[in-house]
Amino acid sequence: MSPLWLLVAIIVFALVGAVLGRNRAVSCVNGNIATLHSRPGYYGSYVMIWTALPAIFFMVALLIAQPFYNSSVIDSELRTGYTESCDLAMARIQGEADADVPAICKDKEQYETLDTRRALMRSVVESVAVGVGLLDEETAAKLHNGFVAVRPTLKSVGVALAEDVPDTVVDAANRLNEVNATGNLILIVGVVLLVILGFVLSYLRIKPRLRARNLVESNIKIALVLASSIAILTTVGIVLSMLFEAIHFFSQVHPFNFFFGTEWDPRFTSAGREGGGEGSFGLIPLIWGTLYISLVALLVAVPIGMFAAIYMAEYANNSVRAIAKPLLEILAGIPTIVYGFFALVTVGPFLHDAGATIGLNISATSVLTAGFVMGIMLIPFISSLSDDIITAVPQSLRDGSLGLGATKSETIKRVILPAALPGIVGSVLLAASRAIGETMIVVMAAGIAANLTANPFEAVTTVTVKIVSQLTGDLEFNSPQTLVAFALGITLFVITLGLNIFALHIVRKYREQYD
After folding, report:
1. Mean pLDDT in residue range 149-162
2. CA end-to-end distance (rounded Å), the chain
3. Using CA atoms, how far apart are residues 28 and 244, in angstroms rounded to an integer?
4. Residue 512's pLDDT is what?
5. How far, in Å, CA of 432 to CA of 499, rounded?
6. Sign of CA dihedral 391, 396, 401, 403
7. pLDDT tens-digit profile of 419-441?
């Protein structure tokens, strides 16, 4: 039984338990509900919670632990198989002075020394295990005994392998299937027992004076706390995953050369070839390109977005606002790759031709192109949020200002905008964070060249673009060319965190003044 159907079964039994629990509470008082401590629905909810939660927690814990256990089983089986096969092969060539090292021994050495090799072989074993599970018993037995080739046999059931695999991999796959079968049996039996046990114990505890409401609300409170902790724990997990890999990178590249270097030249080399550690990893050109393009984008988006928000909130009538605001918000729903095509096909050539007419050499992929298109994308982030914030300013502030003789424009400038400043700062911050994290527009509109230039008509690139480029290609995962992506990621995180702290300071300062 798949985990999904098992979860459905748990939910069905829990709902049945809720009905039975409610009926038991009513029957305990012979229908006189007023003598119950809680409403009957709370007794049903109490039984439902204790019928479902222990089984669900057990199922989730087992599903989380199963892949780790499977990996350890695969590693153990492959190491044992490689060792036995290598020893047997070496025994066969013993005494031959000019004999080459057997291929199985080379595979063993690669498996023991290269993390990527172990990850690849684990993936191959899992694929073979899936294919073996699809075979009939007779074919599976022939495959296990080595009577048929692995690759064409598995291809017949829709499992493609890049090359044929040794018997060691087949043995590990069979062992993996045994472990999965045992795990599924433990999962089903454990869930059934916990559902029955939870239902029986909670059902028998139902008495007229049972504080079911208090117990149910306590469980709901715990669930809310856990739900609110997910975002925090996710953030911590992301930061730690980047931090550990960044520390690994800085053990190979000096931090001073990274943070203060002005040249970006990682010098990609193929996996396993010499020279993989060479290259320059200067961060400054990437940070400069990121901030430069973001600044140009904000110079486009903030004025247009703010003017649009002020018009819609203070000047436009309801019919115009009902049309204009949704049209502006459509911009936020356009995929960034479409903006990239728009910049590459339309905006870039237009700026290049326009610059040529006045004697300026504007590259089709430049800071100006990327910043302008990105600014168009950011307009709804600022206009929509700022419009909502301005609209939320109390009407009494407007009436008081107008009553003192101020004009509408003076009221907006001196009363409404200062009162809405915390929310406006938040919208600008959101737009800035969105600009800093943008990738596709930069790739297509600004290029991938890490140039340190103040000329807005030339091509630059950003941190996010290089993160993507460093994590693609035929490189070892522990090479500095790959690990630098995590150093770039943690640097970008620190920058956005600094922006948030600065914005929070501004918000608190002015909120105290206008609350």
Report:
1. 76
2. 58
3. 59
4. 47
5. 9
6. positive
7. 888 888 888 888 888 888 888 88
pLDDT range class, residue 281, cuts 50, 70, 90? confident
Residues 299, 502 contacting (CB under 8 angstroms): no
CA proximity to 445, closest of 428, 463, 426, 465: 465
Dihedral Cα 266, 267, 272, 274, nearest 10 deg: -120
Run of H or E including 280: strand 280-281
Helix-helix angle 284-310:463-470, to 10 degrees: 130
Burial of 381 (0-12, 13-18, 19+ CB in 10 A): buried
- Do residues 268 and 255 make contact, with C-beta atoms less than 8 angstroms apart? no
HSE-CB at 334 with a 13 A cutoff on CA atoms is 22
pTM value is 0.67
- Phi/psi-derived region of residue 306, left when phi > 0, alpha when psi is between -120 and 50, beta in every other case: alpha
Residue with tokens 């925090």: 232
348-371 pLDDT per residue, tens: 889 888 888 888 888 888 889 999
Q: Is 275 left (phi over 0), alpha (psi -120 to 50) or beta?
A: left
Diameter of the chain measured on Cα atoms: 108
What are the C-alpha distances in Å from 184 to residues 2, 59, 70, 81, 345?
9, 10, 13, 26, 54
HEC sequence for 74-94? HHHHHHHHHHHHHHHHHHHCC
Element (H, E) at 431: helix 421-436
Task: Mark residue 267 as left, alpha or beta (left: phi above 0; alpha: psi -120 to 50; beta: remaining).
Answer: left
Note whether 352 and 364 are within 8 A (CB): yes
Place of tokens 């079964």: 9
Instruction: Report yes or no: 195 and 6 within 8 Å, Cβ to Cβ.
Output: no
For 100, which DSSP code? P
Q: What gap in Å lies between CA 464 and CA 472, rounded to an integer?
A: 13
Phi, psi of 254 (to 5 degrees): -65, 135
Q: Residue 153, by phi and psi: left (phi above 0), alpha (psi -120 to 50) or beta?
A: alpha
Q: What single-letter amino acid sits at 47? A: V
